[in-house]
Prior knowledge:
Mean pLDDT: 91
Oligomer: single chain
Helix content: 40-55%
CATH architecture of the largest domain: Orthogonal Bundle
Structural class: mainly alpha
Radius of gyration: 22 Å
Number of helices: 13
Bound molecules: protoporphyrin IX containing FE, 2-acetamido-2-deoxy-beta-D-glucopyranose
Distance between the termini: 63 Å
Strand order of the largest sheet: 1-2
Amino acid sequence: MANPKSLSVLFIQLTLVLILLDLSNAQSLKLGFYSTSCPPAEAITKKITTQFIYQAPSLAAPLLRMHFHDCFVRGCEASVLLNSTNNNQAERDAIPNLSLRGFQVIDAVKAAIEKACPGVVSCADILALAARNAINGPFWPIPTGRRDGKISIAAEVLTNLPPFFFNVTQLKASFASKGLNIKDLAILSRGHTIGISHCPSFSNGLYNFTGKGDTDPKMDQNYIAQSKKKCKPGDTTTIVQIDPGSSKIFDTDYYTVVSKRRGLFQSDATFLTNSTTNA
Length: 279
Ligand code: HEM
Ligand SMILES: *[C@@H]1O[C@H](CO)[C@@H](O)[C@H](O)[C@H]1NC(C)=O
Ligand SMILES: *[C@@H]1O[C@H](CO)[C@@H](O)[C@H](O)[C@H]1NC(C)=O
Ligand SMILES: *[C@@H]1O[C@H](CO)[C@@H](O)[C@H](O)[C@H]1NC(C)=O
Ligand SMILES: *[C@@H]1O[C@H](CO)[C@@H](O)[C@H](O)[C@H]1NC(C)=O
Ligand SMILES: CC(=O)N[C@H]1CO[C@H](CO)[C@@H](O)[C@@H]1O
């Protein structure tokens, strides 16, 4: 029978092995993961995504947003793409999916890549690459090698995605729970330099900020007046540009808008209330 000392040595060794396994997992993403297993993967993704965006430029924003939504629920493993089944409501059918669009782009890229190299390239990588290709904005290197998940649960969207009414303290905590810091938060929120929103995502600031039929006093009152003309109380269908006038161009306008107290969502406006994000 093993004595306690050798058992504890075994335990330490096992722990070390698990830590090493975990590290090697974390390191399995790398640039050009498919360079030998499927050399054309990235080029196919780029070609097809670019074709779609040429036809329908407004798909760029929802693809970027879809990548964000995918990553915040169970990690970047394409669970956002899975369909609901008879006995399971999937992420894409949760309430915050309002305006998630562009699934057909990922489907088309996946179909083309499957023809070239069946069963090799993950949908999660395709989504990450397509989001970058779609926005026609800054380039960022994307290590690949993500593996696709098989679980997608609508209820997890509500508990993992930060809602539009979060303040900077709550957003900071939400991002921290995904390993992102407050600088990541301020930088990634620039995604709101493109795309649109539906009225209910911000109309509380126009009509019922504290539940007393009031407006958000921190917002530019002229902007509130303009927005009220577009979004009447109870309007759930009208869409507005998040970054008015330049919502198709991936620029730094977002930060100008926020600093002028015209951040559309409370989650944008709140950056002025913290000295770190304000800076
Ligand atoms: C910080 C927390 C965030 C909150 C609370 C938030 C919230 C929202 C809301 C409420 C909408 C409008 C949905 C609608 O009414 O149709 C929206 C749209 C959008 N979000 Fe965010 N978001 C956040 C972070 C991000 C990040 C990190 C990205 C990407 C880097 C992103 C990219 C987008 C884009 C591109 C749109 C426009 C989508 C379209 O045009 O269809 N958001 N977001
Ligand atoms: C989800 O359903 C749509 C419509 O039937 C289909 O086109 C798409 O490929 C499905 N996606 C997945 C990931 O099964
Ligand atoms: C943010 O919201 C939380 C929860 O409502 C609240 O406790 C906290 O005081 C708020 N923080 C700021 C900086 O407004
Ligand atoms: C405003 O908010 C309060 C509290 O949430 C709610 O009871 C009331 O019905 C809202 N008013 C309108 C017009 O939506
Ligand atoms: C702003 O956020 C930073 C970083 O989380 C924090 O250290 C600081 O206390 C916050 N400041 C205010 C005024 O909330
Ligand atoms: C694009 C998409 O998948 N929209 C779905 C969002 O969720 C509702 C149910 O909450 C579905 O009806 C939509 O089809």
